[in-house]
Design a protein that fits this description.
This protein has 414 residues and is of the alpha/beta class. Helix content is 29%, strand content 25%. Bound molecules: pyridoxal-5'-phosphate.
């Protein structure tokens, strides 16, 4: 997390002291670094400069408008998965011709809105979905492009719940079915099936599963060529992992070096859909210690954020480094760091070595929280969603206000 560092024992985001932000905006608070977002985006752009891919930011990782706009202003497109994400992408003036749409369950309304917006392409996940897009496009009199999401049946070394590229999972189309659809593609008068797409999972830190899957899909593209089926796009998805704990860093340069020759050989325009890689280590969740509790068997540090704010530890057993905003030295002891929610699964760390001098009122930073953090937050236990802040140099901006109790009852009737 290169933009979150201690200076004179105080945690900074870029040039702003994090404690000064939390004192002003309260906790829990998500704090993002603009510089980090851009530098992660540029790392990918530069590593793949030779083939100039369209980099569509996977909004599911972080759909804060300011975050998305920061990337769109640098030339990014958006990878969307819902009508809501389409709405947000258009709200920050993403060029519709840089929007790609994947989801196994696109509704009629979502398909209509995407056709009307004129997105670049649909990443189609089944034959019935393709038929549905054709039907709606015909009704609207609007032609569109599509890529078939191939399920390459490749196992990625990641958590089962974020593995997507095996045939045990609901995503994509198997190679045999995809081949049949492509052979028959002329029958679709409104959907031009001109690409293939893959996304094998998330938080994959080794390049090998990507290389295997890309080789498999590239071989499929070759097979299609033999059958006289030419394509325009190859969307290789996202999933590039980040360092949360002790993982080996995912080296985009090595990854690019390994796959560029394969991608070039396909002769297709390349799209990629990184989410976590861009924003994961560009954000933290700041929280305040409410209580210290010792039941004689275990010690607990109870904080004012819960699984409603950051669900990754509860949902995926995910590890997040947790550090105090003011650096401490001295003895550490094992404690669980937990939230206030009425669930035993509401924790951020188990048996973590924590400095014993931490006390009520001290602030902590839950690191690497910029991806799948605020986007996955909820109002469980009628808790308001956290404020989001974007730091740029020596300034910071509230880019989403903390919800109020009024927001909690919005639209409800008794
Ligand atoms: N593309 C698709 C189709 C996805 O489902 C996902 C996330 O699961 C992504 C891109 C982004 O993944 P990541 O944030 O791991 O890069």
């Amino acid at each position: 997390m290169s933009e979150f560092n201690y200076r004179s024992n105080e945690l900074y985001c870029e040039n702003v002291k994090v404690s000064s932000i939390v004192k002003a905006v309260g906790t829990p608070s998500y704090i993002y670094s603009y510089k980090s977002l851009l530098s992660q985006f540029m790392k990918l752009k530069e590593a793949f400069a030779e083939i100039k891919p369209l980099i569509c930011f996977a909004m599911k990782a972080n759909d804060n408008l300011a975050v998305v706009k920061s990337l769109v202003d640098q030339g990014a497109g958006c990878d969307i998965v819902s009508g809501g994400e389409l709405y947000k992408a258009l709200a920050v003036k993403t060029d519709p011709k840089k929007i790609v749409y994947a989801s196994v369950g696109k509704t009629e309304e979502e398909i209509k809105a995407s056709l009307k917006a004129g997105i670049l392409l649909f990443n189609v996940e089944s034959l019935p979905e393709l038929e549905e897009i054709e039907r709606i496009a015909k009704k609207l009199g609007k032609k569109t492009k599509a890529a078939l999401r191939i399920n390459p049946d490749v196992k990625a070394a990641t958590h089962d719940r974020i593995t997507t590229g095996t045939l045990q999972k609901k995503f994509g189309i198997d190679l045999l079915t995809a081949h049949k659809i492509l052979k028959n593609r002329k029958k679709y008068k409104y959907v031009d099936i001109c690409g293939v797409h893959m996304h094998i999972g998330s938080q994959i830190t080794s390049k090998n599963p990507f290389i295997s899957a890309i080789k498999k899909v590239a071989a499929f593209i070759d097979e299609l060529k033999v059958d006289g089926i030419g394509l325009e796009y190859f969307d290789i998805g996202g999933g590039f992992g980040i360092v949360y704990n002790q993982e080996d860093p995912f080296c985009v340069k090595d990854f690019a070096k390994a796959i560029i020759p394969i991608l070039k050989k396909t002769g297709l325009k390349i799209i990629m859909e990184p989410g976590r890689f861009i924003c994961g280590n560009s954000g933290i969740l700041a929280t305040k210690i409410l209580y210290l509790k010792d039941n004689g068997v275990k010690k607990f540090l109870i904080v004012d954020s819960g699984m409603n704010d950051l669900v990754r530890p509860s949902m995926y057993d995910a590890y997040h480094e947790i550090v105090p905003l003011r650096k401490l030295t001295g003895r550490k002891e094992k404690m669980d760091i937990v939230g206030p929610i009425c669930e035993s699964g509401d924790y951020f760390a188990k048996d973590r070595q924590v400095n014993v001098s931490l006390k009520k009122g001290d602030f902590l930073a839950i690191m690497s929280a910029g991806a799948y953090g605020h986007v996955m937050s909820s109002n469980y236990n009628s808790r308001t969603r956290a404020v989001e802040v974007l730091v740029k140099g020596n300034k910071y901006f509230v880019v989403r206000e903390r919800e109020t109790f009024k927001d909690l009852i919005k639209g409800q009737r008794v």
